[in-house]
Amino acid sequence: MTAFDLTPPSSEQRDALVAGLNADERRVLLQHGTEAPFCGVFLDNKRDGVYCCRLCGLPLFRSSAKFDSGTGWPSFFAPYHPDHIGYVRDLSHGMIRTEEVCARCGSHLGHVFPDGPPPTGERHCLNSVSLSFTGLGQTFPDPLGRGGAEAEPAT
């Protein structure tokens, strides 16, 4: 069980969070869009820390699970905690894929594929605009004011 509160934001909280997004973030997070490859701000990020949901701040992936997939999007072989990611069957664009969404707020993150490295064999291919980054030792974002694990430093 995760130490983070996975209760979805209220309608008022969600509206306030969405108001802080730019047009590209809204298109990807809320309308299941995709950013162009090789342009995301986190593609080449080498800092130690945790990638969190851009909308609600939930920790999603550790930098220690990041790898260079050569696809043009930040890729990870395992989530921060399995309960932090939701999975949706995606039949768009003439393909069958598995979409990944934030388990707390439902924001679109990217897709997971079965062609990643050991130990999981998974490639979680994410949009940089779906993410924020918290360096090791920095406090996690807590835009919902939940306190608890959200107020702890990233490890």
What does this structure look like?
- The protein has 155 residues and is an alpha+beta fold.
- It has two helices and nine strands; from the N terminus they run H-H-E-E-E-E-E-E-E-E-E.
- The chain has helices at 11-19, 23-31; strands spanning 49-53, 59-62, 66-67, 75-76, 85-90, 97-102, 108-113, 123-126, 131-135.
- The chain has a six-stranded antiparallel beta sheet with strand order 3-4-8-7-6-5. A three-stranded antiparallel beta sheet has the order 2-1-9, with no helix packed on it.
- A hairpin with a 7-residue loop joins strand 3 and strand 4.
- The model has no long low-confidence stretch (mean pLDDT 95).
Which range best describes the helical content: under 10%, 10-25%, 25-40%, 40-55%, 55-70% or over 70%?
10-25%
Radius of gyration: 15 Å
The largest β sheet comes out as: 6 strands, antiparallel
**What proportion of the residues form beta strands (DSSP E)?**
25-35%
SS content category: alpha+beta
What is the averaged pLDDT score? 95
List the total number of helices: 2
Low-confidence stretches: none
- Write the element-wise H/E pattern from the N-terminal end onward: HHEEEEEEEEE
Using DSSP, what is the number of strands? 9
N→C terminal distance: 17 Å
Q: What is the 3D form? A: globular
Q: If strands are numbered along the chain, what order do they take across the biggest sheet? A: 3-4-8-7-6-5
Would you kindly provide a brief summary of this structure?
By secondary structure, the protein is α+β, with helices and mostly antiparallel strands.
